[in-house]
Amino acid sequence: KKKLYSFCSLWFLAGLAPVLAPFLLFASTVADRWVYFASIGFFIAIASFFYGSLNKKVFLVILVIAVSLLSVRTMVRNLDWRDELSLYGHDINHRNSLESYELENNYGKALFFAGRKDEARLHLERSVKLQPASAF
Description:
mainly alpha
């Protein structure tokens, strides 16, 4: 088990290494997609811990429920992605987080290329207000 945890830790750190370089952190904002590969090691370690701690049937039930819920969430999110305009528009209208200059900028660009220049201007101006030094 110690070898497995060591392997998982190494996988996690090796997966994060390319995006933890100091020059990359300052060049961009953090993106969740950067940890997808690294998270495999983390989840294998968690699963092996619970597999050894729980009854095998209980573990399988929990695993099936977790995978099912995450699959459904992925399918629901995929409905938001018809094109860039629909995805960014959904996120602008339904976000529960802080203002995002990247989201405002991307939505403004999508509106601009769709020919909706007045709406695009509002979002692009909001993007500049959120992060005046950004280069789009």
